[in-house]
UniProtKB/TrEMBL annotation:
The keyword Repeat does not apply. It is found in: Cytoplasm. Keywords: Cytoplasm, DNA-binding, Phosphoprotein, Transcription, Transcription regulation. GO terms for molecular function: DNA binding. SMART domains: HTH_LUXR, REC. The modification 4-aspartylphosphate is found at residue 55. It comes from Bacillus salacetis. This is DNA-binding response regulator. Residues 144-209 form the HTH luxR-type domain. Its main location: cytoplasm.
């Protein structure tokens, strides 16, 4: 499988450096480069990449606004924020906008490739600082814990595996069910827990102790 990647960053040197390295990977193809958020939105619609590496601070439209637009029109496109900012004022809005990945620009090249592959396989890829900010956010969340009790036993099993960072394929293998069934359970989990993505569901599981089971 070839992973089609779009790079969005207002610095030409950064785009060129990322493209130069990623092109050395046999399973990655660079389909385009955007110099600002507006271009990222346009090229996302034109090329339909699998993953977008998105800078946060860009002219015309920033990465968060671009992410919102792209996820609304093309929800299957995975977006990884690749930025220099690790504070909660940037992390939280980026995740809420729909980014499934959040990494800093000092990430090692091999780790970046690994993170891209994780996104395509259905997993999240978050820098430890981003994860810490999300956990603190969840700890302040006043969502009633009784929502957990609405889950069936099998849905709780799936949530536990999801909280471990497993992909749908890995969850299916671990629980001896089909990937289609996993997707159905995850959809039900999102609805019952009133969350919108895997990251929020996983953090909810952590907050209520489900991730410690099994």
């Amino acid at each position: 499988m070839t992973i089609r990647v779009l790079i969005a960053d207002d610095h030409h040197v950064v785009r060129r450096g990322l493209a130069f390295f990623l092109k050395t990977q046999q399973d990655i193809e660079i389909v385009g480069e955007a110099a600002n958020g507006r271009e990222a939105v346009e090229l996302a619609g034109k090329y339909k990449p699998d993953v977008i590496l998105m800078d946060l601070v860009m002219p015309e439209m920033d990465g968060i606004q671009a992410t919102k637009h792209i996820k609304q029109s093309h929800p299957s496109i995975e977006i990884m924020m690749l930025t220099s900012f690790s504070d909660q004022d940037h992390v939280i809005p980026a995740i809420e906008a729909g980014a499934a990945g959040y990494q800093l620009k000092d990430i090692e090249p091999d780790e970046l490739v690994y993170s891209i592959r994780k996104l395509v396989s259905g997993e999240n890829s978050l820098h430890p600082k981003a994860t810490n900010h999300l956990l603190k956010r969840v700890s302040r969340n006043n969502r009633p814990p009784h929502l957990i009790h609405q889950l069936t036993k099998r849905e709780k099993d799936v949530l536990v595996e999801l909280a471990k960072g497993k992909s749908n394929k890995e969850i299916a293998s671990s629980l001896f069910i089909t990937e289609k069934t996993v997707k159905t359970h995850i959809s039900n989990i999102f609805t019952k827990l009133e969350v919108s993505d895997r990251t929020q569901a996983a953090l909810y599981a952590v907050k209520h102790g489900l991730s410690e089971k099994n």
